[in-house]
Amino acid sequence: SAQKEISVEGKTYKLDEWMNTPPTILSAVSRRLHVQPDHPLTITRQLIESRFPGYKAHNELFPIVSVHQNFDSLGFPPDHIGRSRTDTYYLNKDTVLRTHTSAHQADTFRANESEGYLISADVYRRDAIDRSHYPVFHQMEGARTWDRNAAEKEGKTLAQVIWDDVAKIPKHDIKVEDPNPPHHAERNPRQGTHTAEEVEAIAAHLKRSLEDVVVAIFNAAKTASDAGSRSADEPLRVRWVEAYFPFTSPSWELEVFWQGDWLEVLGCGVVQQSILINAGVSDRLGWAFGLGLERIAMLLYSIPDIRLFWSTDSRFLSQFSSDSPIKRFVPFSKYPACFKDVSFWLKTSSNAAGGVGHVAPSASASATSSTLGHSFHENDVMEIAREVCGEVVEDVRLVDEFVHPKTGRKSFCYRVNYRSLERTLTNEETNGLHERFRQQLVDKLGVELR
Ligand code: PHE
Q1: What is the per-residue burial (b if ≥16 Cβ within 10 Å, else e) of 47-56?
Q2: Is 288 close to ligand 1, i.e. is its CB under 6 Å away?
Q3: Domain assignments of the chain as residue spans, ordered by start
Q4: Ligand 1 centroid vs 392 CA: distance in angstroms?
Q5: Which CATH class is domain 5-317?
Q6: What is the CB-side half-sphere exposure of residue 400 using CA atoms within 13 A?
Q7: Strand 175-177 and strand 237-245: pairing?
Q8: What is the CATH number of domain 338-449?
Q9: DSSP secondary-structure letter at 188?
Q10: pTM of this structure
Q11: ipTM of the assembly?
Q12: Residue owning the nearest CA to atom 12 of ligand 1
């Protein structure tokens, strides 16, 4: 008999067949890493906040939100992949663990307490397992709006007022690649409610503000790197690329060239006017961005594995301090990896894995299959690995995929890397974990081991 309700920090939620949130995920709610003194996420947050003077910072917003807040209020279409139970943690049909800080946009605009705001918070997503993905991570959302009526009362256009604010942003001399026009009718349209001059001014303020953040981060990272070790004199390269989000238009992503690759560090754009209108501030126009704090902190400190942020080991925590300059993280000894494979046939009968059938078509992960009338989603494999292994799984990847030529049955082989960041695992322990992982795949997904 399934549990009917659940309490999280004194709040009670009814559960229904949409519930897919394991207890280990719920237990992360109380951690609040981004406000723990001297935690690298806190220091990173504070460094970014310091580049937005006057913006109101919200750091305590509760992570359990409505589907309306997380998706509907932002204009996500009903069939958007992000809403699927394979990607998002639900408590019930109307209640999720927020998947992004944008879940608080509409409410924060409605409260209308400040021209600019920042929201830092834990966010939750079912996803792959590797050294840069963990099902709980932290984002910072920022937004800045201006009142068009107020500008015109002063005898100025809104664009003029915004350009005056652009001039107040600290200048930098890094190389920025920004080959696209600020808006493009097909690829990245300006909203009908905005003039070209307004969009151009908002885009300039947004881009200069975020470039200033990146410059501040990389200057801090440069002082952190041991003299001469990392290409300290290699100039910072950043570029703007066009993007799409349901809640901004035009939209962009900012990428930074880091160790040979372009790395996406944030998404942003001009706020959909419908969100501001619905929030009762129809005269206001502006921008919003969202960035991943772990990703920035990993760059800032050279932290090699995202699981470290959750560590309570003093060999990790003692390396960070709010009141001394940023120092590069010195990894404590690397413990041995242990690779183990598991191969299985997907279930062929129609009563699908995971109890109630998945609600939306799944197509985001690398291994999905909806043949034979049920769906298999890689994120379910990932979650079982997390549930069985906790922090002791470093990486899970699909290494082989095979369709039987006669029966049409599908087989997958996953390779699990068992490794603790804090100690050497014994053979008995990894064998035991792997055996439990295999058994759970059978019990929960109905697969047949090969
Ligand atoms: N919420 C988006 C994400 O999680 C980022 C974003 C925030 C984009 C605000 C535009 C504006 O990917």
Answers
A1: bbbebbeebe
A2: yes
A3: 5-317, 338-449
A4: 30
A5: alpha beta
A6: 12
A7: parallel
A8: 3.30.70.380
A9: B
A10: 0.91
A11: 0.99
A12: 267
